[in-house]
Each structure stands twice: as structure tokens, then as C-alpha cells.
Amino acid sequence: MSFRRRGDVVGGRGPVPMASNPMLNRTAAPAGMRTPMTRTGIIPTRGEGHPNISPVSLDQKSKEDVFKHLGLKPSIALSNINCVSTGTKDIDTILIHGGLPVNCSLLIEEDGNTDFSGILLKRYVSQGIVQNRKEGKIVNHCIAVGMESNFGNELPDIYAGNSKERKKKLVREQEGKMSVSNINAGNDLKIAWRYKKDPLAKEDDSISSNASDDSKYPDYNHDFDITSKITPSPGPTEISYIRLDGGYDHVIFEIKKTVERELKDKNKMIRIAIPYMLNPMVYGCEDLVEFHSVVRFLYELRRIINSYTGRITLMASTSSELFEGTNVLCSLENLIFDGVLRLVPFPHELNILMEKVYKTQREKIKQGYVDVYRVPILSGMGLMEKRLKEYSFKNSKSKFHIEQWSIPVEEEDVDEKKNSEF
Amino acid sequence: MASASDLQEQELSFYQGNIHSLIAPENSISLILHEPANYPSWLISGIIQQSISSNNECYLSQQSPAYPKTPSSTFFYSFSETEQTYSKYFLKYITQNKSLFQFISPLTDSTISIESWNKSIITKVKETKTKDLTPVVILESPELLLSIIPGLTIPKLLTQIMEIQKYATLYIALSTDLINSSELVISLLHRSSIILSLTSLTTGRADDISGVLSISKGPIHNEDINKKLVSFKIADRQFVYFVSANGYVDQWFASVSMPMKLIIIGLTTVYESLEIKSLCGLFTNGKKSPEQFDLSMAFIIFRNILEIHAIKAMVGMLI
Amino acid sequence: MSASVASPTILLNRIFSLREPCPFILVTDTFIQSATYLTDELITKARSSATDLSIIYLSFETTHTPSYIQTGRDQFINLLDKDFEIILTKTFQNDSSLNQISNTRKLIIIDSLNYIQPNKIISFLKLIMNPSHTVYGIYHQDMNFQLNQSKNPSPSAYTYLHYLSSCVFEVKPTDFNDSDSLYNQILSNGPVFPLGVKSTQQPLFFIELTYRRKSGRSLEYNFTIDSSTHNYEVITLENNTTDQDDETLLKDLTTFNLGTTRKQREQRDKVDLPFLEAQKSMGSVGSSIVYEFEKDDDYDEEDPFEDPF
């Protein structure tokens, strides 16, 4: 039972009486529900001895028992599921599980022509690459569909902390005279040890609530500096680029081949990224965006993801503006992707209002809503997890912040000022 | 019209006065239509549990007495979900006669040829069908087939579905939001004897209510299909339900056409409250005309001190 | 035999018991209130009035033979996604070859006309229409899309059907007048959920009957049908018939009395228009030819139906 949710009482097997009305627990389920951090704890509020979950099928379980990976962490919400990080901590949080469950796919939609989702996808790939560098050997293989090698050259590197911290680190690094480029199997351990130390010490004081998780899964996720670049750029052993030239059949064939090849190594996981999916600049506006072929392609892709238990995840981004209200987007949202989020940049008026209201506290200015349409597995289980305009996001150099959205309230004087203006 | 005695009932039952509360008559189509945010997995699991049970066990109607029942073989074909989604339910509730149940998903089983999906079902169903026992087949998201199988048209898909219906009691779960498959939805609506729809509250997400389950009569009369004496009179009503991540489902009977007054002024100040939010959603969800949904002012005043079940009791008294 | 019926209820009963000459009855419905109850009503009535009636059920969406189909006498034919021309020709050829003039009336039920492509609908009807047949076809109004899409500007299948029918039943839920009702919502926006409690398939429902008399004049009546008690009730809707409109238009226009009294109107309705006899034996398709005999027209002695002045 290595994947029992931590914090469970081992003997707590007593079945919860069915008739128990969750509304009765209202007082027990505290107001803390309001912050996204504790919101993830939907189940823990029902404290009455969560029954242990026995293996789904022995075959599957034993495989999972054997499979260890530094990028894996058990889901917070479901006890028998493992997750990988999307590379963005707050996205992991709003997915309730604390990450993207394995064998699942996540779609990031974006309204308008901003490119926040592109950054999220890069973080997802970077997370995989960075784990390779930490481990000192290749444990993640990334597949970028429809992209060329320049995609890999633009992946963000780990946020090194503010300038002071960075200087310290630089000094230390130079002392060690070791750069990531010359790692080989021989000095794995050293590197791993070195890296492991640093984030531990740093993050302990930064995020208190996740501290225990972070110490247990130090390389599960990282902060990325979007202005930096991973050096050296990932090579063909770490990332494969699959071009769309041959049509979807060809893409599927290539992905299948890559997956088969890479997963022969029993320690590897695969991250498939489909940035700018259906973007006309990449996909054109003919065969590749035809409804049935898109669905067929993604369905085949899902079959591949699901054929290797616990080893593959997928993340895609697309413009919802282009496909709003079309069959394509409906099907993707409802039937193909396990998780669906949408980034909705604020309308201009709201931006202006926020500038005004938060003149003195500029850190409060947000850039848009994060709408949750579907949460992997939990939505499928029948939980209603569609949250529109409940979260807002703000992209900064090192973080992609997601917070509970609250409407900015104009203070009195601002109001008066406004009145006098007109 | 709902009576107060109905309100006490928290058992989920599709049919009135029928001991097998969720099991549809033989060779009928039961349509489960759900909104994208309200997946029916909890309901499907309950149907499976009762179908394979030999003593009428179903976690959605626990108070109903154990009753001997011939277990039916049950085949669940999901085109959109994997066993991962259902594992919680299966572990908890599919404990009896496990061997009678089969979950098949082309997503996880790469050996399945999607093109001949219906042939494989029919072979399995024919094997298990006996003179007095009709197997149960549940299809989830067959609309995907229209895209996945090249050249499959709606009439062709319907023919395939009809073929299965000849040998089985059929449940079909579909999403209502799909533009392209709305033709399929309507075609199936005209073939179904019961329509089960899962919808969100109009007010959006709430922490204590996942959605509303409505049970409506379909155009096909059960009497036509079933010549047995068991009553399949459809319990035309709505339930509110709540699903939590540990696989428990609670449902309450929701009376929707309530002669009560809803005072909006009182509400706006407390709108933030989730209890009120969900309750309002509940009342407006099955809306017919505004005057039918009047909510007493009292319950808004008392909302701070009353637990929601107390409000429910009040609602019961007011009817 | 006549088109003059005093009471709408009697007319309805005559149609149900197949005593009114109606070669093609078209029924439109929605999944909110389907024609199932109406069909049951018709079959019970028709069976009890004509015991030798044989029913041919052409199925596009029914999997299981309905209980009123009796083996030996009736037929159940599945046509979905099949070539109906071959099947139907075979069915009816056998039929006519066996007894040249079959005296047994046949009721042909089509559970859904929606599955026939608009360009095939005429040939479909041609195959099944016959003087001894009564065709009862259901068209789902909410399925008003073409399942096998082809963009052509020709009339829709429904337009053809409506044009060719001799009697149209529009099945509606009782609250159809309310523009917010589920019925109107699904007609304009497609299916909406939740459907609400007790809003589908109610035993008490509304029908709008358009009956086309041989003369081409059409009568419109509204009924509510309670299928549990088999009770029919005539309903008069407030804003209706053109007759009344005429009256109001003519009123106070001149000092002459241009209006018609109720008695006059009743009398007028009873008048058999000429040449009805001639039309009696005519095939089931198409409207009959009604013409005024004029002074210069040749008087044909051999024509027994000629009006002798």
C-alpha cells in the first residue's frame, strides 16, 4: 500500500454511513474552503476514516509498486493515483490532485491572442527536462508535437532565486567546477545530492503548507524563470519533435514509435506536449483542423497514453477564440481531455479599473480568469468541478500565480475622483 | 405534484413501486444525458451494482429491502472514460458477482477494434442471453464513434445500436453539449423509454450539491416492450445529488414546483452563502414560471442558524 | 359518405376508426409529447371498427414489434438504413398478386418519416399508397434536420408530406401556448435540460387537427385527448379561424348584410361540393379536380357523375 494517502489512519477502515449528509458537516468543513490552498482538501474534510483502497487490478498495482520516479507524487484527492507536476505549482493546485494524474491529458484553452498557455506548456516540458538534469540521467522523455527544435531552445530554466541568492549560488557552482553539460553516469550521485540540498533549504521557509510534500518529493516541481533558458538545450535523447507534415496518421505513427522506444527503459516517463494545437499558423486551415480527423487523432493519442499504465501524460494548448462554439472544441472539452482549463484575459475595462484600484498595491493586479471546466478523473467520477470566474491568474517572471478571484472594489476617494472627472 | 411524504424519500428509483429501482425493462433504451460538468459515472455504477446483484443491492437506494433477484450479466462499454475514472466505484460497489460484470474501454484495451465494436458486443451478449434473462449493456459516449470510425453516419450507428437493443437492456450515456451529436441525441430521445438528465445548478458550482438528476418519461411506452407484470411506471421526478471524491453519493428528493415565494432582495445580501446559492439553484433549476418558485423570507433570515437539513424540513412543511 | 360532419369529435372518431376517407394521415410530434398515445388511440379504435384490419408497421426506430402487431395478420418491417424500394415492392407485390382486389383494409404505420431523404419521400409514398391503404406516418418536428445531408433548395421533406397529407395531427403538450414552455424551447433551440417534472409524455395532451375535405377546403379543430380515459374534448382557441376574421372585416363596412349567420355557415359546411362521387374511388395521392360546370361545357351523357343541373 505504498500509495495510501499520507495522513490516513491505517486502521481507519470503518465505512462511512451512506446516509451521512455532507451538509451536516457544514460546520466541520470550515470557511477555509475559500483559499485555493485548502480547497484542494475536499475529501479530508470528511474525516471519518477514509477506507483504504485495495488495488484496482493486481497487475496494475504491482507495476506501480515497482515504478518509482522522482517526478511522481500521490494525488491529494485520490489515494490510488499518481501525479506529475505540470511545471506550474498553482495549476497543479487547481487540478485538485496536486498535479496532473498519470495517463491523463490536460487542455489549456486561451481566449484572445495572448500567449500565456504557451508559457505553461513550456514549463510542463521544462519540468521534465529539469528532472533529467537533477537525476543526472534521463528519466523523462518529452515529445513536442508540431514543433521544431527552436521550441526546445526556448524552454525556461529553474528560477534561481532573487539576485542575491543567485550570486551565492553562482559562487558555489564555480567552486564545484561542474556544469550540467558534462554530467555523465559516473557523477550522477554527486549532482543529485547537490541539487537536492538547495531547494530543500530554500523552499522550507517559502511555502509552509507544502513543506512536508516538498521535502518528500523535492524534485516534483520547481519554479521557472521564464526569462532564462535551459542550458544546454535538450538533445534528441530528451525531447523529440514530431512534425505535422505527414498528416495525423503519420504523427500517430511517429508518437507510437517514440513511446515504444523510450518506454523500453523501465525508469522513463513521457510528457507529450501539443502547443498551439489547431493554430492556423501551424495546422493550416484544411485537413488538420477538420473535425472528425482532429477527434480521431486525439482519440488515438489517448489510446497511446492509456496503454502504458502510469508512464505518460499529455498537455495541450489551443485558442478557444478560434474554435468557440464549434464541434471541435465541444468534443475536446467533453470527451477527449481529462482536464480542461481556460485562460481568459480580462477585458480592457477591468484592467483599467484594476490599475486604478490597486495603484498602491500593484502586486494585486491580475491578468485574467482561470476557468476550470474539467478536473482529471474527479469530473469523470461525477463531481461538479466546473468553476467559472472563480480564479484569476497573474504571470510573473518566476511564477504563474493563481488566486481566488475577487472583484476589485473602488475606494471612496477613487470614486469621488472619478465623479469629479466627468 | 409532489406530496410531503414523497419528500422523505431519499431512495433513488426510476420506477414507481418497482423493487428493482434502477433496472429498466428488457430491450428498452434508457437515455442518460448529462451536461459536460456532470458526469454520470456514479449513476452508472449504481445501475451496474443492482444489475449484477443477486439480492437487489444498490448503493443509491440502500434502504430498500434485500430482495432476491436474478443477476444479469452486465457489459459496460465506455468510449470516453477509462477504468481509472471508475475504479473507486467499482472497488466499493461492484463486489457481488463480479464475474458477471465486464468493463470494456477501447482507450485502455488496444486490442479492441473500434470498427467492429457492435459485433463484439453482440457476440458477448448473445452468449449470455438466456430465455428469461436479458443482459444489460451500458454504452458511454457512443457519439465519439461518429468521429472515430470513418464514414459512420447517424443512421448506421442507430442501426448498430438497435441491433444490440434486440438482445439487451440498453443504457446509453451521452453528453448534451455536443453540437454535432445533437442529431444523435434527438434520434435516441425518440427511441428511449426513460430520459435521465444530469444538469448543474443554474447558479453554478456549489460545495454541497453536485447537480440535479431528472427522471422523465420517454416517447416509448414500457408496456409496449415488456409484457411482464412488473410495474415500470416511471417516477417522474427530480433529485439533487452530491458526489464526493471518495465515491459516496447522496441524493435528496427535490420537489421542484413548490408554491413558495422567493424574495430576491433578501437574497442578494446573502448570495455569497453557498447554502443559499445551492438552494436557489435548486429552486430555479426546474423552473417553469417564476411564481411557482417563491421562497419564504423566513428561511433567509434563519439561514445563519439553520442547517440545510432544517431548511429542507421547512421546505417540506411549506408544501 | 360525406365530409359534412356536425361535430368535430365525431369527425375525430371517424378518422380514428378509419371510416373517414383519409388516405394519408400525417402526425407531427416531439419527444416532449410523442405520438405514441395517439397511435394507441387510433389502433384501438380502428381495430374495434374493422376487425379484419391488417396493420403493416414500417419501422425506422422501433426495435421491438409492438404488442398490437399480431403475427399472421400484421407485418413488422424494419427499414432503417435499408433500401426501402426493394423491400416495399416485394411486400406489396406479393400482396396484390394473391388477391387482385383485396377488400381488407390495410393500415400502414410509419414510426418516423424523418429517416427518409427528402428526394426519396415521394417515391416512398408512391410505393405504399393505394386505395385500400390508410397510411399513418409520424414525423418528428424536433428532428427537423436532414440525416443524410445534402444542400438543395428543393422543399423539405416535411413540406412535401404536409402537402400530400389528407389529414394532419399536430401532437403538442397542453402548455404549448406558453412561449416559455419546454415545447417551444426545444422547437427553437433543440433539446434543453433538465426537462422538469411531469413535463414529458403526459397522458393528457393537445392535438391540432387539420382535415382536408375533398373539395380542398380544410377544417381545423383543436382537441385535448386524455388517453387514460379515452376522452376527447374540443378546444376553441381565442385567436383563431379565418371565418371569424372575415366576419369582423365585413362588419360595419356597408349597410348590406354581408356576414353569415351561424346557421348559414353550418348549412354551407354541409353542402357537398360537386363531383364528390367521382373522387371517391380515385387514388390516394393528389388533390381531386373540382371545377364549375359552365354553360358551354359539353354535357356527356355517359358520365354518371355529371351534375344534371
Question: What is the topology?
Answer:
The complex is a heterotrimer of chains A (422), B (319) and C (309).
Chain A: H1 36-39, H2 58-66, E1 73-74, E2 82-84, H3 89-94, E3 100-101, E4 105-110, H4 116-135, E5 140-145, H5 149-153, E6 157-158, H6 163-176, H7 188-206, H8 211-216, E7 224-225, E8 239-242, H9 247-262, E9 269-277, H10 280-283, H11 291-307, E10 312-319, H12 320-323, H13 327-336, E11 339-345, H14 348-357, E12 368-374, E13 387-395, E14 400-404, H15 412-421
Parallel strand pairs in A: 4-10, 4-11, 5-8, 5-9, 9-10
Antiparallel strand pairs in A: 1-2, 2-3, 6-7, 11-12, 12-13, 13-14
Helix pairs in contact in A: 9-11, 11-13
Chain B: H1 4-8, E1 29-34, H2 41-52, E2 74-78, H3 83-93, E3 101-104, H4 117-128, E4 136-140, H5 145-148, H6 154-165, E5 169-175, H7 182-189, E6 194-199, E7 211-217, H8 222-225, E8 237-243, E9 249-254, E10 260-261, H9 264-270, H10 274-285, E11 293-294, H11 297-301, H12 308-318
Parallel strand pairs in B: 1-5, 1-6, 2-3, 2-4, 4-5, 10-11
Antiparallel strand pairs in B: 6-7, 7-8, 8-9
Chain C: H1 8-16, E1 24-29, H2 36-49, E2 54-59, E3 75-78, H3 84-98, E4 106-110, H4 121-128, E5 133-140, H5 157-164, E6 167-172, H6 182-189, E7 204-212, E8 218-226, E9 231-235, H7 242-250, H8 262-270, H9 276-280
Parallel strand pairs in C: 1-5, 1-6, 2-3, 2-4, 4-5
Antiparallel strand pairs in C: 6-7, 7-8, 8-9
Protein name (chain C): Elongator complex protein 5
GO molecular function (chain C): tRNA binding
Family (chain C): Belongs to the ELP5 family.
General description of the model:
Chain C: This is Elongator complex protein 5. Chain C: Pathway: tRNA modification; 5-methoxycarbonylmethyl-2-thiouridine-tRNA biosynthesis. Chain C: Its main location: cytoplasm. Chain C: Keywords: Cytoplasm, Nucleus, tRNA processing. Chain C: It comes from Pichia californica. By secondary structure, chain A is α/β, with parallel strands linked by helices. Chain A folds into two domains: 54 residues, no CATH class; 325 residues, Rossmann fold (3-Layer(aba) Sandwich). In chain A, strands 8-5-9-10-4-11-12-13-14 form a nine-stranded mixed sheet, with helices on both faces. A three-stranded antiparallel sheet of chain A has the order 1-2-3, with no helix packed on it. In chain A, helix 9 packs parallel to helix 11 and helix 11 runs parallel beside helix 13. In chain A, 41% of the residues are buried. Chain B is 32% helix and 18% strand. Chain B has twelve helices and eleven strands. Chain B has two domains: 251 residues, Rossmann fold; 59 residues, no CATH class. Chain B is of the alpha/beta class and 319 residues long. In chain B, the strands form two sheets. In chain B, strands 3-2-4-5-1-6-7-8-9 form a nine-stranded mixed sheet, sandwiched between helices. Chain B has a two-stranded parallel ribbon with strand order 10-11. Chain C is α/β, with parallel strands linked by helices and 309 residues long. Chain C has a single domain, classed as P-loop containing nucleotide triphosphate hydrolases (Rossmann fold), CATH 3.40.50.300. Chain C has a nine-stranded mixed sheet with strand order 3-2-4-5-1-6-7-8-9. Chain C is globular. Chains A and B meet through helix 11, helix 13 and strand 13 of A and helix 2, helix 3 and helix 5 of B.
